[in-house]
Amino acid sequence: MNCEGRKDPLNPCLMTLSQKANAFWAYANPKKFLTTTERLLPFIWVLSGVCLATGLIWGFFFTPDDYRQGATVKIIYLHVPSALMAINAWMMMLVTSLVWLIRRHHVSALAARAAAPVGLVMTLIALATGAIWGQPMWGTYWAWDPRLTSFLILFLFYLGYIALWEAIEDPDTAADLTSVLCLVGSVFALLSRYAVNFWNQGLHQGASLSLDKEEHVADVFYHPLLVSIAGFVLLFIALVLYRTGTEIRARRIRTLLARERVGA
């Protein structure tokens, strides 16, 4: 970028780290957040739809059967992306919960709340597709494997997180307690990702995606899998942005109704 002769204080070349941070925190303003996401959402919805359709159609209909697993290997295009998003959704909730605890920005707390049902569904998809995929390979739908068990516990944490939000009337207290729960649940989110590295026993295979070409799946499955993962990531972003906007509007409505009751 050529910055010579530019005196504009908003020029990225002249902005200090503090100014850039302030520009980022500006999105903690609900009005700015809603305005920005309303412009971005249509593009993200379209991109997610294109990636999902391309990845799933390519994977299910234009890749060969595996020499060992047969056609069941194609479950990978649902199982791996949903499992990745189940874990990363909780990690996103962890970050936004920390922002709430440190900076007290309501948008971050509402974003965590918005992400929880999406992460719950992703975890459920991962568990269901894993069971379907595992039955012909392991001879059983379920085993108390380290990764499977930690994933089941993560699913229960999602349920507990959502239930805790619903059970507490004061939104700030609910945000505080669910943030603490999110910190605890992050242990199991990390275990779900790295369990096969910590414990050698168990039926679950190693990572399907790896920087080591000898470890990840063959290229014929790998490339459509990447497209499918991109679709799941974009779908997650779109759903969280949409649901966060809904949570912001619902909070405003509750505030207005409370003021009316006080005024009456």
Essential attributes:
single chain, 264 residues, mainly alpha, globular
Explain the layout of strands and helices:
Layout: H1 17-25, H2 30-61, H3 76-103, H4 106-138, H5 146-167, H6 171-198, H7 219-263
Helix pairs in contact: 2-7, 3-4, 3-6, 3-7, 4-5, 4-7, 5-6
Distance between the termini: 59 Å
Q: With helices defined by DSSP (H or I, 4 residues minimum), what is the helix count?
A: 7
Which blocks of ≥5 consecutive residues have pLDDT under 50? none
Give the CA-based shape: globular
Helix content: over 70%
CA-atom Rg in angstroms: 22 Å
Strand content: under 5%
The structure class reads mainly alpha
Mean pLDDT: 82
Largest sheet: none
Order of helices and strands: HHHHHHH
Q: How many strands appear in the DSSP assignment? A: 0
Describe this structure in words.
- By secondary structure, this protein is an all-alpha fold.
- The chain is 75% helix and 0% strand.
- The protein has 7 helices and no strands.
- The radius of gyration is 22 Å and the shape is globular.
- The mean pLDDT is 82.
